């Protein structure tokens, strides 16, 4: 699996008043192995977050048709979905969130016909990506709704 030329390297994880910067690789290692770095362990404890639940939201894959996903994300309903997810995963400047998120979703889907939050974060097209940890579960639910919507549209 190749990494895109412009992939996120840093992650700013926000939990309420807590805000900490990590390498995306650090979060990816946690997602893949369950192994927490010291800094990530401390921050999740301070934010009173369950690492197992966070890991589940990061890694649980959602199957999508990459071509159809691209078409939907470039529609009006796709823009609404992107705006909702970008309230959780965004650019540091809060600009071009739709474009960065759309690219990350499509890159993730093209790799294996599915997307996960960790893939989206890794494929984010800015050097740094901000994630609102308090709303991570909501972002996962939005992706599940997107999957359901795509399946419904394919049946029509």
What's the gist of this structure?
The protein has 156 residues and is of the alpha+beta class.
Detailed description of the structure:
- This protein has 156 residues and is of the alpha+beta class.
- It has helices at 24-33, 38-46, 51-59, 66-73, 76-85, 97-112, 117-123, 136-155; strands at residues 10-15, 18-23, 62-63, 89-90, 114-115, 128-132.
- Helix 5 (76-85) crosses helix 6 and helix 6 (97-112) packs across helix 7.
- The longest helix is centred in the last third of the chain and has 20 residues, at 136-155.
- It is globular and about 45 Å long.
- 31% of the residues are buried.
What secondary-structure arrangement, pairings included, does this model have?
Blueprint: E1 10-15, E2 18-23, H1 24-33, H2 38-46, H3 51-59, E3 62-63, H4 66-73, H5 76-85, E4 89-90, H6 97-112, E5 114-115, H7 117-123, E6 128-132, H8 136-155
Parallel strand pairs: 1-6
Antiparallel strand pairs: 1-2, 3-5, 4-6
Spatial order of strands in the largest sheet: 2-1-6-4
Strand content: 5-15%
**What string, H for helix and E for strand, traces the elements in order?**
EEHHHEHHEHEHEH
According to DSSP, the number of beta strands is: 6
**What is the end-to-end distance?**
33 Å
Mean pLDDT: 86
What is the 3D form?
globular
Uncertain residue segments: none
**Largest sheet properties:** 4 strands, mixed
Helix count, per DSSP? 8
Category by helix and strand content:
alpha+beta
Radius of gyration: 15 Å
Assembly classification: single chain
Overall helicity: 55-70%
């Amino acid at each position: 699996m190749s990494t895109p030329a412009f992939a996120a390297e840093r992650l700013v994880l926000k939990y309420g008043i807590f805000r900490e910067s990590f390498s995306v690789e650090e979060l990816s290692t946690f997602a893949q192995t369950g192994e927490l770095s010291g800094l990530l362990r401390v921050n999740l404890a301070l934010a009173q977050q369950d690492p197992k639940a966070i890991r589940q939201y990061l890694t649980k894959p959602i199957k999508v048709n990459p071509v159809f996903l691209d078409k939907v994300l470039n529609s009006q309903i796709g823009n609404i979905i992107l705006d909702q997810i970008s309230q959780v995963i965004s650019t540091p400047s809060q600009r071009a969130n739709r474009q960065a998120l759309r690219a990350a979703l499509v890159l993730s889907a093209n790799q294996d016909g599915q997307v996960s939050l960790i893939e989206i974060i890794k494929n984010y097209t800015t050097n740094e990506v901000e994630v609102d940890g308090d709303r991570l579960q909501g972002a996962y639910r939005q992706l599940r709704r997107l999957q359901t919507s795509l399946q419904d549209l394919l049946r029509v």
